[in-house]
C-alpha cells in the first residue's frame, strides 16, 4: 500500500500506487487464467488496497480508480465463469467478505453481488439493499464516493425496473427507486462532508476538488430519470420530495446549486410542469448564497422551449397556473434572500418575462404584472448604477420589443415606463435607441397623439437634457447619431386624419422645444417637413366648408411652423432657420397665402442681415433667396418689388466682385417669368445685365491693377449666356446689337487666349449659337441676325 508520509510528492504516490497496482493485477490475471479462485481473490484484494490512500487528489484518485474498474470487470467475468463451473454463487458472495480490509472487501462484494443478481438465485432488490447498506462501512468522503459510484455503475443495468429481466413481483420499481435514492443520499452526505475537512485556508482548493466530483453524485439522478417505472405519479409522490428533502437538509451551497440544476436538466419537462409548486417551494429554503437566479432562469428556459416545441401543451400551462407559481416563487426567493444583489433580482424577472412572452404571448396583463413585480423589488433603491444590472434591465425592457416587433404593444404596458425610470441617463439613451431601432426595423407607424406622447416618454433620454452626472461628456459622434435616429423616427409618426396628424406634430413640438438647444438643428427640420406634408394633404379652402375656421387649416399650420423655426436662431442654427423659412414661404405660395409668404421671406431676410456674415455663406444664401423668389407668384406688385429690390441690393453688397457680378445677373430672372405676364419687365432685366457687366469690368481692372495682368474673361462669357437666354425669350430690350457687342467685347479681351478654360467656354457658346441657327424656326431666324 502507498505510504502516507507527509511531504511526499503526489506524482510519486500515484506512480508507486500504480506500480503496486499493476503488479497485483498481473498476479490476479495469472490466477484467473489458471482458474485459481483463492489466489484471484487474494491478489485482487491486495490490488484494491491501493485505493485506501488519502494522499491523492480526486483527479489522481480517479486515475487509480479507473485502473481498478477495468480489472474488476475481468474479475466479474471470472466469477461468472466459476458459477457456471459449479461454484455456488452464495458461497462466492460469502467468500469475498473474508478480505482483510473493508474497502477491498466492499469492492469485491459489489462485484460478486453483480454476479449474484445475474444468476437470479435471489431477488435483485434483496442483494441491492444489502450492498447499499454494507457500503456505509466506508465513511471517508473520497473513498466512499468512488465506492458508491462503482456500486451505481455495476447495478445500473440490473435494477428491477419495468421491462427489465430482473423485474420481480409487485412494487419492484419502488425497490429500484429506493436503492438509487438511498445511494444518492449517502453519496451526497459524503460529498458535502468534504467541505468541512481540512484547514480553512484550503477552502478554495476543496471547492475545486468537490466540483470535480459532482458528476458522481449527479449520475444517480440521471439513473432515476431513465427508469421506465418512474412515471409522473411516482416522480411527484416519491422521487422529487425525497431528492428535495436531501438538497434542502444538506445546507451546502455547492450541493444545493448543482443538484437543483440536475433536477431541472435530467427530468422531463412535463414532470416539471406538473410539479412546479413542489420544486419552487424548495427554492426559498436554499442557502442565501446559492445562485438561485441561474437555477430558476434555466427552469424557465426549459419550460419556454417545451412550450415552443409542443403547442398542444400550452393549455396545461394555464391549467397548472405556471406563471402565477413562478411569479410568486421569485417573490418569495427575493424575500428569503434579503441580501440578494439587484442583478440577480432583475435577471429573475427578465427570465420570467421571456417565459411569459413565449408561453403566453397573448396575455399582456401577465407581462405587465412581471414589470410591476420588478418595480416592487426596485422601489426605494433609486437609479441603478451596477453596470451588469442595468444591462440586464435593458434586456428585460427589450424583450417585448423583440417578441412583438411592434412598439405599439409595448406602449400598452402601463409599468413599462416606470421600469425605465430606474435606468441612469446613459442607459436611458441606450434603451431609447433600442426602441427607435425596433420602430424603424419593423416600419411601425404610430398613428395617434396619445401613443406618440407615450412613446416620447419612453425615449426622453434622447429628446431631453436629463440630469447628467458631473463630468459625464457625451461623445459628439454618438450624440449626432442618436439625434439623427430621432429625426428618422419623426417620419414614422403619421396619421391619415389631418386633425390627428396636427395633434401629433403639436406633441412633438412641445417636447422638442423643451429638449435643449443643441438638439433643435436635428429635430426641427423633419418636424417642419411633416408639417409641410400635412399642408399639402389639406383640402382647398373652396372644398373645405369651414375654411380658415376649420380645426386644422393651412394658416394654423403656418403659424405652428413660424413658432418652431423661431427657436433655431437661438440654437444657434441661423443658416438652417433661413432655409426653412424659404421652404415655408414656397409652401405658402402654393396655398396662395401672400401675407404668410411675405412674413416668412421677411424672417429669412432678417436672418440674412443679422446672422449670416461669412462671405461664402452669403453667396449661397443669396442664391437660395433668388431661386425661391423666382418661383413665387403669390405676391402683388408692391410686395414683390420690395423683396426683389432687397435681393438686388444684397447682391451688390457681396464682398467679392465676381460674386457680386453673378448675383446681380441672377437677379435678372426675378423680372421675367414666362408664365406670368405681370412679371415681365425687360427694362429691369437689361438693367441687371448692364450692372453685372459694369461689375465684371471693375473686377477686370482690379485684377489688372493688383497683379499686373488682365483677369479672367469668364464673367463676360457668363453674362453673354444670360443675354442669349433672354434673347431667345424674345425680350425686346435684348437686341441683336447688344449680343453682338458682348461677343466683340469678349473677342477683344487679351486674356481670352491665355485662359484655356475661358476659351473653351466661349467656343462652346458660339457652337450653341450656330446650332440654334441651324434648328430653324422663330429662334433660328432670331439667331440668323446675329453676326459672329
Automatic annotation (TrEMBL):
Its main location: cytoplasm. Keywords: Cytoplasm, Endosome, Golgi apparatus, Membrane, Protein transport, Transport. The keyword Membrane applies. GO terms for biological process: intracellular protein transport; retrograde transport, endosome to Golgi. It is found in: Cytoplasm; Endosome membrane; Golgi apparatus, trans-Golgi network membrane; Prevacuolar compartment membrane. The keyword Ribosomal protein does not apply. SUPFAM superfamilies: ARM repeat. It is a peripheral membrane protein. InterPro entries: ARM-type_fold, Vps35, Vps35_C. One of its GO terms (cellular component) is Golgi apparatus. It comes from the Eukaryota. Belongs to the VPS35 family. Plays a role in vesicular protein sorting. This is Vacuolar protein sorting-associated protein 35. The lineage of its organism: Eukaryota, Viridiplantae, Streptophyta, Embryophyta, Tracheophyta.
